[in-house]
Specification:
Length: 248
């Protein structure tokens, strides 16, 4: 038997008052791959992300992370086991500096009583670590600025930095290029490729050229179900996929 997938959904169902937003989804994400989840609006992409990261509990089915069940765990417990996510809606604190935003995220990994009594030496360590993360996401020059001064694209870069602070083995990115111009899209695509080194990345993405450039494999959702899954070049030629998109 081979190694367990990094992330797996089996028979995943989510009902909202009888309406199936997620309908018997089976999904296998292999360790080290970049996997894109695509599909028309309302297809169930956000609901699936919420199920995978523990923000919603499934009506039926299971989610495993490296072979271990996680669907009954709270989101912070899932983070501790190695899965982090970014949000479509900004999780950045606007009045803190860019560096402080990352320090807060790093501290979030510290048990609560210690958070208020962090020794200065440890805080300095966190600052150094924050600066490494900021360098990795291309924001070193902005470290001392208020996060509110960042452009939309730079905020998305910071959010990726914040989700990196927990050193996840699996990173879920919710529309990392949304609302960006072509320059920002290229920058974030390069960043996603960089953070994917040595880890598994699952992203919801609308921009098909980003999907084509980044994704090893894709899964297409429609009406809460998996319509197709596989390599981008194979899936995009699937007549059912073409029809789903033309009908959008
Ligand atoms: P996507 O992210 O692909 O646009 P969503 O996961 O947001 O799709 O939504 C899938 C379907 O589930 C939609 O029809 C949406 O209206 C419905 N839905 C999502 N969340 C809820 C909720 N909390 N209560 C009721 N219906 C919901």
């Amino acid at each position: 038997m081979g190694a367990a997938p990094a992330l797996e959904a089996r028979g995943l169902v989510k009902e909202f008052r009888g309406f199936r937003a997620t309908n018997d989804v089976n999904l296998q994400i292999q360790e080290g791959e970049i996997h894109a989840i695509i599909g028309p609006n309302g297809a169930g992409k956000t609901t699936l992300f919420n199920l995978l990261s523990g923000f919603l509990k499934p009506t039926a089915g299971e989610v495993t992370l490296f072979g271990q069940r996680i669907d009954a765990l709270a989101p912070h417990e899932i983070v501790r086991r190695g899965l982090s996510r970014s949000f479509q809606i900004s999780s950045v604190f606007p009045t803190l500096t860019v560096r402080e935003n990352v320090v807060v995220a790093l501290q979030a990994g510290t048990p609560l009583p210690h958070r208020f009594w962090t020794p200065l030496s440890r805080l300095e360590g966190l600052r150094d670590r924050a600066d490494e993360i900021l360098q990795a996401v291309g924001l070193s020059d902005f470290a001392g600025r208020a996060a509110s001064e960042l452009s939309h694209g730079e905020k998305r870069q910071l959010e990726i930095g914040i989700s990196m602070s927990q050193e996840p083995r699996v990173l879920l990115l919710d529309e990392p290029t949304s609302g960006m111009g072509s320059e920002g899209i290229a920058r974030v695509a390069a960043l996603v490729r960089q953070v994917a080194r040595g880890r598994t990345v699952v992203l919801v993405e609308h921009n098909m050229s980003v999907v084509a450039e980044l994704a090893d494999r894709i899964t297409v959702l429609q009406y809460g179900s998996v319509l197709a899954s596989g390599r981008y070049d194979d899936v995009r030629l699937d007549p059912r996929v073409i029809e789903a998109y033309l009908g959008d």
